Amino acid sequence: MTRTPPIWQLLFAFALSLTVLCGLIGWLQNVHIISSNGMYKSIQAEPWIADPSTARLDPSNYLFFPLYGVSVRLLDALGILRGVPWKQFAYLNAFWASLGTVVVYAFVHRLTESARVAALASMFHLGCGFVLLLSVISEDIMPGYVFVLASMALAGLWFDRPTWQRIALVGVLFTLGWLIEWRLMFPTLPALALALLVAPEPMRRRIGHVLVLLVSILATSGIVQLLWEGHTGAIGLHDILWTGKGVATGWAGLTWDKAWMMLSGIGNYFLLVGGFVDPRSAREAAFPLSLSVVVQAAIFVASVILLWPRRHEPRLRAVAVVFLGTLGAGQVLNFYSQPQDPQMQINVMPWLTVAWALLLAALLPSRRGVALVLTVLSLVPFVWNVSALARWRGDDSRWLAATTALEKRFPPDSSVFLYFGYEPITTWQYALWSRTWDWDNRVAIPPAPSADPKFKWIAVNAGAIRHPGWTGPEHAAALKRDIDLALDRGYRVVVSELWAWPRDVLAAYLGTVSASGRTDAIYRMLHDDFRATEAFSDPIAGTYYELRRR
């Protein structure tokens, strides 16, 4: 009979994790490392913070904004960073990540019956690159991930001898997770169903168990749908189950560029070594990324070798099916979308912690020297990744200063900015100047000067994301129309370092949205039809050029 860990151990794991993460957030002073998407999410949550009764539900984050809206209101009431939700989100993520630490500790303790193994595995998990990153920045994935991780842990422990009550609880936790972030449904659902189908029971009973899982998912979704019925933005059950987020956009599609981005995603999940955004940077960081992947592969192979004699144990088989099944299905889906994105990798890669925990359980009882080495190795990811995060320390204040400097140099009432679309400065201009999206051939603006909207901008990647069917010439023509519109209305067009990019760099960035084939047409349009002179340089925002017709 396996033992449940004492409650004091779980509370200690939570408190220690939360203390470390909150201390790290305060030390880093940057909640937008690698990704600034959390700023947009915090802005989207503002109506839920101000007045939840009139706020609009988001189909793909159906429970996220209500959850974080209530949480921020609580932090405001406690006087914690009142009125600064983009910082509060990071601390909320640290809270949920600490609950995730408790999940890992309890799961490993129950699986191995060792508090020492559970503690080391928990530190290993928290120290993994993308887990640590998403625990200290303002992204929106952490609460959904923790719910899904808890459902996977319970499925691994219970699906060797499933009962309808156990299956229903797994289904409820799993559904709450993907209702916070819709896409979390797809990698894990097939794995949960497969684990039930290979359980050591008659086939008729196995099929019945799968039906129980599906009914619990539908019932939980239906209850949530009924609870929100009549609220602004509420949708029906069918639309909750299929929101289509990211489908038929530039994020979707199969290209060879995504093989490099997959290397980036898998490598950086474990050790943050670089090459985060585009296939070109991933190629440049191929050696350290490959080393990270090789270490992960070695952990996998070693765990398989050591555990092979136990391969017929039902519980071990259930654990393998749940976690490796999620890995397989998840990476197939990631290759179709954004395999380099930390959010896309975090929920499909917890197998690594499980494999490490099983290795620890098999090897720790041996000689003291081996135990010491394994203890140190369990801490290596955390130490490495904290040092990697330190390179971005203090950047939030630097971006704020850069935004102010940019406003002084280029008065917003008479300036239009041309960006690729990934530049971090766009997030700050959007948040601090005006909540306006790029033009994308859909804007009508008055002649300059005009203070409304304050932030006027054009993004190269917009055509690739929103119009995946465009050809290169169509994309280039659309960009030219927007630039000409700005010039004709008397605005200065200010272009970021995008202007100085060589073709291969532009191709690499367009490759992230399946549009590298449009590079030549866009590059020729910019450099054949326009000329640019350097107009401003900032140590963090980079160099800006003023664009004129040739």
Molecular structure report:
The protein has 550 residues and is mostly helical. It has two domains: 386 residues, no CATH class; 155 residues, no CATH class. It is built from 25 helices and five strands. A five-stranded mixed β-sheet has the order 2-1-3-5-4, sandwiched between helices. Helix 13 crosses helix 15. The radius of gyration is 25 Å and the shape is globular. The model has no long low-confidence stretch (mean pLDDT 95).
Name the strands of the widest sheet in spatial order. Answer: 2-1-3-5-4
Order of helices and strands: HHHHHHHHHHHHHHHHHHHHEHEHHEHHEE
Report the biggest beta sheet as strand number plus sense, adding barrel if it closes. Answer: 5 strands, mixed
Mean pLDDT: 95
Please, what is the oligomeric state?
single chain
Offer a few descriptive terms.
single chain, 550 residues, mainly alpha, 5 strands
